[in-house]
Input
Amino acid sequence: EVQLVESGGGLVQPGGSLTLSCTASGFTFSDYVMDWVRQAAGKNVEWVSTILPSGTTVYADSVKDRFTISRDNAKNTLYLQLNSVKTEDTAMYYCQRGSRRGQGTQVTVSS
Output
């Protein structure tokens, strides 16, 4: 059974940093494209970033140069490093494999 468990969210001040993690199980993690998506209250799901099995990364313009996606295949773990966060980054963040998504971790950016 595919399982994705996110962690690391919390309250952070504007300009601050946070690292999100997603532990995967039930499939060969290293073989799959993995994504981070987010959903702010009352808004549609927004794609944030993708990492290929090769390690190639792609980012939404809204987070480019501020967020970094990475993966540790030995630990079956996906990461998202959030730097220079803005209030508009407030959302529930989900890791995603295809149509499968975890339960999410809340990031709130506020002073």
Observations:
- The mean pLDDT is 97.
